[in-house]
Amino acid sequence: MADRRRGTATARRPPAGSAAVGTRRAAAAAVAAGSTVAGVAAVTVAVVAGPGPGLTGYVSEAGVAGSAYAPAYRIGVFALATALLLLAAALPAALRPAAALLAAGGLCTLLSGAVTCSAGCPLPPFERATVADLVHGGASIAATAAVVFAMLAVVFAMLAVLLSPAAHRPLRRIAGVGVALALPLSGAIGLAMLTVGRSGLVGVLERLLLAVAAGWGLATAAALGAARR
């Protein structure tokens, strides 16, 4: 009987390696949450206090060369890129597709922060763009799309029961809310950019979509840390 009890306790005890991996993921989630808050704060300061055109312009205009707030904007973008990479490392193994998308989004965000657009950050089809504008704009769009697809990947993984429903139910709820908000905003931005171009409508929609992406990342990081505890 005693041997049987010892065997049951041993079977229930998680492997030491698994505990170490869980600790590393929890640490990555915690730092990702902090980086998200710091990045959003820095970018917000650059956008609000900078000389940009307000809601009629793109967020990226805060980082145009020559602006006094360009360093703050770039620091914020790099902090957000770090947050995406750390969040990718913090996700459970069953969410590898979402982690890969977040890693790609983090790299694209790094590229977006490293390549500065020209004044006004012009984009086709209504504006004449330079190579740097196209690289910056393409990287920014790809980064945002990667985050939205990562939300979808989490939702699909939950629907396929690849994760424990009880342990990771918060991830499913957070991703579901993120997808419900991000998909309509993404479609509206794409349509507005093709039909209207730079306008207050695009400016407001872009800021809302970026807020949803940042909120999803922060909430997901917090949920991962809470699940570990």
Count of alpha/pi helices: 7
Structural class: mainly alpha
Low-confidence stretches: 1-14
Q: Write down the secondary-structure element order.
A: HHHHHHH
Summed over residues and divided by their number, the pLDDT gives a mean of 86
> Judging from the principal axes of the Cα atoms, what is the shape?
globular
Radius of gyration over all CA atoms, rounded: 20 Å
What is the tally of beta strands? 0
Tell me roughly what share of residues is in helical segments. over 70%
Distance between the termini: 33 Å
Q: What percentage of the residues does DSSP assign to strands (E)?
A: under 5%
The number of distinct structural domains comes to 1
Major sheet details = none
Describe this structure in words.
This protein is mainly α and 229 residues long. The chain has one domain (20-228). The protein contains 7 helices and no strands. Helix 3 runs antiparallel to helix 4 and helix 5 (131-159) packs across helix 7 (200-228). The protein is globular, with a radius of gyration of 20 Å.
Gist of the model:
This protein has 229 residues and is mostly helical. It has seven helices and no strands.
Considering the chains and any ligands shown, give keywords for the structure.
229 residues; mainly alpha; disordered N terminus
List the helices and strands and how they pair.
Layout: H1 2-12, H2 16-49, H3 70-90, H4 96-114, H5 131-159, H6 169-195, H7 200-228
